[in-house]
Amino acid sequence: MRYTFQEFINTSSVFDLNGGDDSTDLFKTVQKIIKKQDMKLIKDFSGASVGDFSVDGNEIYAGIFEEPSVKVDGIVHDYGLHFCFGVSNDSGKGVSADIYINTDKSRGDLIHDVKIYMAKNPGEEFAYGIIGKTDRKKSYSFLLSLGANETVYVANAYVRQYERVSAIFKELACQGHGEKIIYGRSVEGRELSAYRYGSEIGQDDKPEVFIVSGWHPPEGDTFGTEGIAEILSDDREREELLKSVNITIIPIGNPDGFVHGFNGCNLKLRNVYWDFDINNKDEMPETYFAWKLMGKIKPDIYFDFHGYTFQGESKFLSSYIKPLLFYSSRRRMFAENLNRRIIERCGGKCVKGYSTFAPSTPGCRLTSKFDTITYAKFHFHIDDGISGIKKMACDLLKITIGEIKKTNSSVFHNNTASFLSLHTICCKFYTYIIGYCKIKVNQFVKSILKSLRQQEKSNA
Length: 460
Ligand SMILES: [Zn+2]
Known about the structure:
This protein is an alpha+beta fold. It contains eleven helices and 18 strands.
């Protein structure tokens, strides 16, 4: 049978040559080489995050970049959750592209609507673009319309480029007279930068507020610290706020993670938040040097910013609130009042329980060492938008300063943990007893489910 050239490249029936799989594969390969691929997946930019992928005509199949799960303090966290890549249409006409992420087709369990964030240029802010479908785990499908010769960047979060965020903070600090402190270098040698507003470290007795964002790059929490840097760039506001406190901000805790499109790890594939290693300079310079800076400042109040992105209503704007028992008696009253105000601002919601004082996290280490009142994670929510996240962060700061003003200043001096031993014992108890039991129960339930499934299979 003879085919025209066009029939050859467009028709799959030509592969039915009774030649077995090998000849089919061969023809498919030849067809791919001959057929001009107008659609391309772009991943050569700062912040791109995608696993294996393939492009077939107007369909793109991509995997989520998988980072190793964190196993620490008796909890397992999977941070392979976000994607960010570009799609280009090199044809001279508009097309619709079917994008499948971690699935090869539209599946019945992709029932939840999900916002897909888009940008024309990955160096600018992403904005809500279209609605796709997800199982709220790792699979997505959506239809992307592209104009002639157009490239669009897509993500399931407000992905921000390291270069952009760094430049914004530098500019805001310049306007707000913030002092830039380079407190170390990342695995790949990037600056680890903090901005200090108020007096020089150790020069006065004002309470120290310490805020970190950007441990987990796709979470959009750098908008929170940016909002605070914005109000501090206003002379009148700054003057008023700094009457009562000194403020130190680390905007990007994990710069390499931003550049390489990681979800939670540094370049040595260790999660910089959950596994906040303060002893290993080679593997975790980001946490090692952050801890050194924290040690110099001895924060009174610490906020660790994070953000929920695609998870839907099961996750909400809220702070981790740890038990008051972990603070020394002189600080408990202040912590109780501040907790109450923060919970009110979050609509009555908060997160309690073990994760709020997991021993390996920065918040827990700070309380252990300096009796710091820590909000070990403050989760923004992507649905509040950029301005909502910024406003929330500024409100948090103002609420904190408001409570500080009402409090006797003796609460904020001599930052060493008099309750160190109780804190450590409680954390260790939970880690080794309850954490261990949780893992064992989990394994037991999984093994039962597995044997049930095997039984079902053999019965079938
Ligand atoms: Zn996070």
